[in-house]
Q: What sequence folds into this?
């Protein structure tokens, strides 16, 4: 535990040193990125030790702050979530060390590195905190540091808007968490997690209240629909290495918090699992539909993160339902699928955001309609993006397919093991999950096809250049990790035995012990993935050998009979998805288009405009906040800007508090 806290201190100290060297961008980068990488590598030592079966490590000492001591612990659940946090953060620091240098003439880099290191330290402390007060303080550090990273380019209006939306969503969510911890503390008599674990059995009403408060508070951070509205705004605005961390690991803090709080409430109720499964299916479906027609590459990836969080929540809901229903196979499969996809999504989404950032770094634009032809100009980035797209679309032979296959297995088990309405619901859900998979494949074929193939659609794409090895190396490492999970999934799943035992409890110990002997389909799946890769590589080499002496024909691409075809005649991202968006999606999820068709014998002008706002933001949150903003504006009369007025407010507040205490004392005495 001491080593992990030293790692956190190293990150904070190096961040402060980078901030102090703000006038020297390269030195600030070396200090900030170097401290982040060193701290992450140091923190991985105790993390792996606990994950591999060592005893939990803890540290506790009293402090002067009310409501508990400084108490931290690294147990198997914390180490499970800490592994992707530290691993991806180290890679993001290496990537960001070159990515941010492009801004060295415009901006100071000391501040971004300070907040980057504070962001990592906040996430680590969230995972090891063992008092509610320390947890909320670390949660706030994580959230506020992320806000300053999101608003890195604060001179842009859309970035400022994204920052405000994120900050509002973060603090509305923490208000629900605060209330949940207050209720737990009142029943336990303490705000320490150890007291929460020894709570006497709560009534069903109190357990339900705490669970729902935690679901809203942590669901807002995780990006569950309809609490997701900050995510597609903040991810595109942040620097790409920060987007990778926010999507790959920060949103998982919401899942960790939900699992941790649920562990205080004892045996889950069946409706908890059903609620999570339904919410997860809704989140996955809405997320991937909205990803279909976005123009901004990073916005596509942000909505894809919402989809994947939905898949994890669906699997988690199935696991909890199986645990509550005493269906051991469903519980183990569902929880295994959820945990494995947490790791897989961190790898896949980190890779995709790094690739998108490399495209932006090399071309200067994130607009898909201005890109094209980048596979020839940026072959390493293009290859990484293609592999990441295959993985994130859950297609064989990469790792996304493995965890999604486990989600299918858990639904199949649920469909055939039970004999009630839940059986039919589970079987119908398989169809919905297949639809989500098909839409995901379509979305990433569109992304890679429009960005990488065809001809450049703008001067930015025409003059794009490949990124440096400091940005390419983290992508290659993530590709190797994705292939490892795809080829030996049964070995990776054995690392999940500790977290599974922690979440499912000792009553399923026999089933947990039997899991490695029942995962023969994963052996087959791993070998199948390996043979697919070998076959593809072999076929590529064979084609290369057979065509090495062939002289490629040169000439213009056939342009449908037009005499002078141009790059504007290529498919756009909008036209590629038009059949689905215009004819298959429900009206409230379609993009908004305005057309003025040419008319008359000699038409001179026509217009077409398309917008892709988030329907939940546009039709729910914006009208709500606009209506209440008009009402609250009347309270501005209280802000007089005069000191004596504020002193009167304080005196009135103290008087009201004294009256309230007097009334309570009199009532208790009587």
A:
């Amino acid at each position: 535990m001491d080593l992990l806290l030293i790692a956190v201190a190293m990150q904070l100290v190096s961040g402060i040193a980078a901030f102090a060297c703000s006038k020297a961008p390269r030195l600030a980068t070396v200090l900030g990125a170097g401290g982040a990488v060193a701290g992450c590598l140091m923190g991985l030592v105790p993390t792996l030790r606990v994950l591999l079966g060592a005893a939990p490590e803890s540290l506790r000492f009293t402090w002067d702050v009310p409501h508990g001591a400084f108490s931290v612990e690294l147990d198997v659940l914390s180490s499970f979530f800490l592994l992707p946090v530290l691993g991806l953060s180290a890679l993001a620091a290496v990537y960001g060390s070159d990515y941010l240098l492009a801004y060295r003439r415009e901006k100071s880099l000391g501040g971004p590195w300070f907040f980057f290191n504070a962001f990592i330290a906040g996430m680590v402390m969230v995972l090891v905190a063992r008092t509610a007060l320390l947890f909320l303080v670390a949660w706030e550090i994580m959230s506020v540091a992320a806000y300053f990273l999101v608003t890195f380019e604060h001179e842009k209006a859309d970035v400022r808007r994204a920052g405000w939306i994120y900050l509002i969503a973060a603090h509305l969510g923490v208000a629900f968490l605060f209330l949940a911890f207050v209720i737990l503390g009142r029943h336990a008599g303490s705000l320490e997690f150890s007291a929460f674990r020894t709570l006497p059995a709560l009534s069903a009403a109190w357990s339900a209240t705490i669970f729902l408060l935690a679901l809203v508070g942590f669901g807002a951070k995780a990006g569950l629909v309809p609490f997701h509205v900050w995510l597609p705004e903040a991810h595109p605005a942040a620097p790409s290495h920060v987007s990778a961390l926010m999507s790959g690991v920060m949103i998982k803090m919401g899942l960790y918090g939900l699992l941790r709080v649920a562990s205080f409430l004892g045996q889950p109720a069946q409706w908890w699992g059903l609620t999570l499964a339904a919410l997860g299916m809704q989140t996955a479906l809405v997320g991937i539909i909205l990803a279909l027609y976005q123009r901004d590459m990073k916005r596509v990836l942000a909505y894809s993160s919402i989809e994947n969080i939905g898949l994890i929540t669906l699997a988690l809901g199935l696991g909890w339902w199986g645990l509550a229903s005493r269906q051991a196979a469903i519980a183990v499969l569902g929880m295994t699928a959820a945990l494995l996809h947490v790791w897989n999504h961190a790898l896949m989404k980190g890779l995709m955001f790094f690739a998108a950032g490399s495209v932006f770094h090399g071309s200067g634009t994130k607009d898909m309609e201005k890109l094209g032809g980048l596979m020839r100009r940026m072959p390493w980035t293009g290859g990484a993006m293609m592999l990441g797209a295959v993985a994130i679309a859950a297609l064989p032979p990469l790792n996304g397919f493995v965890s999604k296959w486990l989600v299918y297995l858990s639904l199949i088990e649920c469909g055939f093991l039970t004999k009630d309405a839940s059986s039919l619901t589970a079987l119908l859900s398989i169809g919905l999950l297949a639809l989500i998979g098909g839409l995901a494949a379509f979305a990433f074929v569109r992304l890679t096809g429009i960005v990488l193939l065809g001809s450049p659609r703008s001067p930015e794409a025409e003059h794009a250049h490949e990124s440096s090895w400091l940005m390419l190396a983290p992508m290659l490492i993530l590709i190797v990790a994705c292939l490892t999970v795809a080829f030996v999934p049964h070995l990776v799943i054995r690392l999940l035995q500790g977290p599974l035992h922690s979440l499912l409890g000792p009553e399923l110990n026999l089933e947990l012990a039997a899991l490695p002997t029942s995962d023969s389909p994963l052996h087959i799946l791993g070998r199948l993935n390996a043979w697919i890769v070998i076959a593809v590589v072999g076929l590529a080499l064979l084609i290369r050998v057979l065509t090495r002496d062939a002289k490629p024909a040169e000439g213009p691409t056939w342009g449908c009979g037009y005499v002078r075809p141009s790059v504007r005649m290529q498919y756009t991202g909008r036209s590629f998805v038009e059949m689905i968006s215009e004819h298959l999606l429900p009206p409230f999820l379609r993009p908004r288009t305005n057309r003025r068709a040419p008319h008359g014998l000699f038409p001179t002008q026509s217009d077409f405009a398309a917008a892709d706002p988030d329907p939940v933001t546009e039709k729910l949150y914006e009208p709500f906040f606009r209506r209440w903003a008009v009402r609250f504006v009347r309270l501005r009369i209280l802000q007089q800007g005069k000191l004596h007025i504020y002193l009167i407010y304080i005196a009135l507040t103290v008087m009201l508090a004294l009256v309230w205490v007097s009334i309570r004392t009199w009532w208790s005495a009587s």
